Amino acid sequence: MDENTIEGVCFKQPKTMAQRCALAKKFHDDFLVNASDRDVALLVDDMDNTVELAFEARPEKLVAIRNGVVVFHTGIGPYQYSVGQLERWLAQECGDKSAPN
């Protein structure tokens, strides 16, 4: 996509786990700019895409994991979920009354 090239986020598909981890670290370093963002665990799927296949996260899916257990998930995006749905769930679970209704 032209936009990805312009933004500098267009990369070749990694062929090794080291390459995949390096891309994840680049994302972490380039885009998680707030200290609170950096406290979020960044997980990297293995080269067999075990997690992607198990959760069918193509092309994207919103998932919340607590203590190793999936506690919230949506349908496959971009049409089977809404970010607002996740925000409301997080607000309910975390007690944030300022989240959108």
Question: Would you give an account of this structure?
Answer:
This protein has 101 residues and is mainly α. The protein is 39% helix and 9% strand. It has a two-stranded antiparallel ribbon with strand order 1-2. It is globular.
SSE ordering: HHHEEH
Helix content: 25-40%
Low-pLDDT runs of 5+ residues are: none
Determine Rg (CA atoms, Å): 16 Å
Keywords:
101 residues, mainly alpha, two-stranded antiparallel sheet, 4 helices, 2 strands
Furnish the topology, listing elements before pairings:
Blueprint: H1 2-7, H2 17-31, H3 50-55, E1 63-66, E2 69-73, H4 83-94
Antiparallel strand pairs: 1-2
Q: What is this entry, summarized?
A:
The protein has about 100 residues and is mainly α. It is built from 4 helices and 2 strands.
